[in-house]
Design brief:
By secondary structure, the chain is an alpha+beta fold. It has helices spanning 87-99, 123-138, 146-161, 168-175, 219-233, 251-274, 277-293, 300-311, and strands spanning 18-27, 39-40, 42-55, 60-65, 70-75, 107-113, 180-185, 190-195, 201-207, 316-319, 327-333, 343-345, 352-353.
């Protein structure tokens, strides 16, 4: 079943507040393939970020990051400066929406959520999506359709925070479906929902305890290595690469991971369709080894979390997200005793106005 590009609409009554919610995401498999025009298989989760918007006088955007108890205020008109920390997301959302010709209104924003920052559950994309939906709703403006909005939110992260993310996180937040994962072919992109029927098994996320700031980690370096490999191979993206022979270290290993990880996505879809959960677990293990050895995005804390999952009886476990810290995803039998701090995750609905 293909995902429809349904527009999100809301018209607030005069003087009333609006609230938008965007979920975090778990990427079942297909890591570091999105910015290489590859395949991935994420799903939205129940946890996420909420933004409440209320009309305000004057020509300012006021923001309260409730969980941090921090504030920001800036003029809606004129050139918008980037600010620092979380403020860059708000200012970037306002600037990018206005650049699209959307006439925003002064308002007061309150941001809160239950996604741990830096854990690999994509709190940053959830912030971007929920901000854009709330800003459009309070202005009684139609937001861009989902794929265009995903691209806009990606620009916020790329141009305003310095994190060179792809579209995986934003598309998962905007196009998720309860009980399903979304197979995304980034060349397009083209989306297809896949039933995520785990029978008597469960997926769980374990925080490694190693928080990372994706903008200053090796993530951007990996993206540049992929661009360098494309130049060496004479291709536009690694989706067109057929092998890594002749490439220098470490470019050959980066390419080897991307090619194999794309294959693992379709193998995972086939395993889900066949009810082969043991096979799915083996694919998670193989993906982790590739991310650790070929893509080199693991750290000791992550390796300890993976081993902890295996000792608890996981059928498979792997690092997820940008890497260099964050969380581990593991597949368990339903009656397994999960490791301490593990959180079960199930596919939830997409971003929406509440």
């Amino acid at each position: 079943m293909r995902h429809s590009n349904t527009r999100l609409e809301h018209t607030p009554r005069e003087g009333r507040s609006v609230q938008a919610f965007a979920p975090g995401r778990v990427n079942l498999i297909g890591e570091h393939t999105d910015y290489n025009d590859g395949l991935c298989l994420p799903f939205a989760v129940e946890r996420g970020v909420s933004v409440t918007a209320e009309p305000a006088p004057g020509r300012e955007i006021e923001t309260h990051a409730l969980d941090l108890d921090e504030h920001d205020r800036f003029e809606l008109d004129g050139e918008i400066e980037s600010g620092d920390g979380w403020r860059r997301f708000v200012r970037g959302a306002v600037a990018e929406l206005q650049r699209e010709g959307i006439e925003l209104r002064p308002c007061s924003l309150t941001i809160t959520g239950d996604l741990p920052r830096g854990s690999g559950l994509s709190s940053s994309a959830a912030v971007c999506v929920s901000l854009c939906l709330a800003l459009c709703a309070i202005a009684e403006a139609q937001p861009p359709e989902p794929i265009a909005l995903a691209r806009l939110c990606s620009r916020i992260e790329n141009d305003w925070t310095g994190a060179q993310t792809g579209l995986l996180d934003q598309l998962a937040a905007l196009c998720g479906k309860r009980g399903h994962a979304v197979r995304i072919d980034m060349r397009g992109p083209r989306l297809r929902t896949i039933p995520l029927d785990l029978a008597d098994h469960a997926l769980a996320v374990v925080d490694s305890g190693a928080s990372r700031n994706i903008a200053v980690s090796g993530y951007n370096e990996r993206r540049e290595e992929c661009r360098a490999a494309c130049r060496e191979l004479g291709v536009d993206s690694l989706r067109d690469a057929t092998g890594s022979e002749g490439l220098p270290e470490p470019l050959d290993r980066r390419v080897r991971h991307v090619i194999a990880e794309n294959d693992r996505v379709d193998a995972a879809v086939a395993a889900l369709e066949a009810g082969d959960l043991a096979g799915l677990g083996r694919l998670l293990d193989t993906s982790h080894r590739s991310l650790r050895d070929d893509y080199e995005v693991s750290v000791p804390e992550v390796e300890r979390a993976v081993q902890e999952c295996r000792r608890a009886g996981a059928l498979g476990a792997r690092i997820m997200g940008g890497g260099f810290g964050g969380s581990v995803l593991a597949l368990f039998h339903g009656d397994a005793q999960l490791p301490p701090g593990a959180v079960s995750v199930e596919p939830g609905p997409a971003a929406r106005l509440l």
